[in-house]
Amino acid sequence: MNVTFNKRDPIYLQVITHLKKQMVSGDLQPGEEMPSRRQLANQLKINPNTVQRAYSEMEEQRLLFTETNRPSRITEDPAVLKQLKKEWLNQAIDRFVSAIDPIDLSLEDLMPMIQEELSNRKKDVK
User: Fold this and answer.
1) Which residue from 6, 33, 118, 126 has the least number of CB within 10 angstroms?
2) Would you say 1 and 51 are in contact if contact means Cβ atoms under 8 Å apart?
3) Exposed/middle/buried for 111, CB within 10 Å: 0-12, 13-18, 19+?
4) Could you say which DSSP state residue 103 is in?
5) Under CATH, what is the fold of the domain 11-74?
6) Are 81 and 89 in contact (CB under 8 A)?
7) What is the pLDDT of residues 13-43, one digit of tens each?
8) At what angle do helices 11-25 and 78-100 cross, to 10 degrees?
9) Is residue 69 within 8 Å of 87, Cβ to Cβ?
10) Where are the domains of the chain?
11) What is the distance between the alpha carbons of residues 88 and 69, in angstroms, rounded to a whole number?
12) Percent helix, strand and coil across the chain, each rounded to 5?
């Protein structure tokens, strides 16, 4: 797991964002076992307390669950996962709309550009 941390945001929030991104992209699967707090801290070269805080927040959001004497796991709750994807998409749309707001484009002009970009990205993946 490789994360580049910025100096603006608290590290635990950046860890949460990274893990959420892996969840919505499918890199982390529902029910998948997470590294221990110490393992993840070693991988990311951060304090284990920072990972503990990130995991705790994600447990409060029901994105992770931890049973006694068992590793933490990604939630398997479809409603929670659907909500996460919706939140991620809403944030992306908000950033996109804010970025293009100064440009005078109609939706009719914008849609073909978005479709072309999505098509190009799919070609690059293959």
Assistant:
1) 126
2) no
3) exposed
4) S
5) Arc Repressor Mutant, subunit A (1.10.10)
6) no
7) 999 999 999 999 999 999 999 999 999 999 9
8) 110
9) no
10) 11-74
11) 31
12) 60, 5, 35
The span from the CA of 41 to the CA of 37, in Å, is 6
Q: Residue 121 above 90 pLDDT?
A: no
Reported in sequence order, the residue ranges of 38-94 that DSSP labels E, i.e. its strands, are 64-65, 73-74
Which residue do the tokens 């914008």 mark? 110
Rounded to the nearest angstrom, the gap between the alpha carbon of residue 18 and the centroid of all alpha carbons in its chain is 5
This prediction has a pTM of 0.84
Which pLDDT score, from 0 to 100, does residue 55 have? 98
Query: Are the beta carbons of 20 and 88 closer than 8 angstroms?
Result: yes
CA 102 to chain CA centroid, nearest Å: 28
Q: How confident is the model at residue 126 (pLDDT cuts 50, 70, 90)?
A: low
Retrieve residue 68's tokens.
């006694």
Query: Would the pLDDT of 49 be above 80?
Result: yes
Token representation of residue 18: 């990274």
74 phi and psi angles, rounded to 5 deg: -70, 140
